[in-house]
Amino acid sequence: MADNKDKKQGGRSFGKGGKGKGKRGPIEEPWEPKTKLGRLVQGGQITSLEEVYKYSLPVKEHQIIDTLLKGKLKEEVMKIMPVQKQTTAGQRTRMKAFVLVGDSDGHIGLGVKSAKEVQGAIKGAIIDAKLNMVPVRRGYWGNNIGNPHTVPIKVTGKCGSVRVRLVPGPRGSGIVAAPASKKVIQLAGIQDVYTSSRGKTRTRGNFLKAAFYALAETYKYLTPNLWKPTAYETTILERY
Question: Across the strands, what pairs with 82?
């Protein structure tokens, strides 16, 4: 009887443990670049993120970061909070996520996204963090011995009422910071630094943004070792 039933259903069995019981995960579609930068990254002409930053090329596709930093990225969900909007029908509640993405080697990104579901907010925040990835310059405290381990200069970032100041620290001092800003600094690849903060740091979103903006400031200062004349050359987009 079972054989006859299977034949009627086209030879497929939908009983317990049958083929119809299998679970399939999300199917990843192959990446089709929409921008010229994406096509160059996929074609192998651009192999590092520094080439993108050197010519200030805008990153419009998060797959570019995935390709250039494959296997190095770490993601950290820093906060999930409900946000509400007043409508004529009542209140509409959505979930807002703050996510950090970094490789602990001089690249850090912070993403924020609101969505109906927590999973959608986290997924959108990860993509936003990759698109907002910035390089972090590292330097020395004292003599230039070994690898760079701290911020090269004192930098300040601000968001809302929160101010975060990063001060270079000697080797071995570690990251002297609050847990939220410490995670931002760790994912940026800085090992030793002193921090000073003021304002309403309980507002986690502004606190994270202030620390992120402070790290982004490290490449905006022109220190004496960068005073050499700039040799201008054609950009990658003009070359290919």
Answer: 95
Task: Please enumerate in sequence order all residues whose Cβ is within 8 A of that of 147, keeping only pairs 6 or more positions apart, or say none.
Answer: none
81-140 pLDDT tens trace: 999 999 999 999 999 999 999 999 999 999 999 999 999 999 999 999 999 999 999 999
* CA distances (Å), origin 205, targets 6, 114, 157, 200: 57, 13, 13, 11
For 19-30, the DSSP string reads GGG----PPPPP
Helix H or strand E segment including 180 = helix 179-188
Q: What does the block give as tokens for 76? A: 């950290």
Residue 239 structure tokens: 């070359």
- Kindly state the tokens that stand for 210: 């202030």
Pairing of strands 155-159, 162-168: antiparallel
Q: In which region does residue 44 sit, left (phi positive, over 0), alpha (psi from -120 to 50) or beta (all else)?
A: left
* Model confidence pLDDT, tens digit, residues 38-95: 999 999 999 999 999 999 999 999 999 999 998 899 999 999 999 999 999 999 999 9
Q: What span, in angstroms and rounded, lies between the C-alpha atoms of 27 and 12?
A: 23
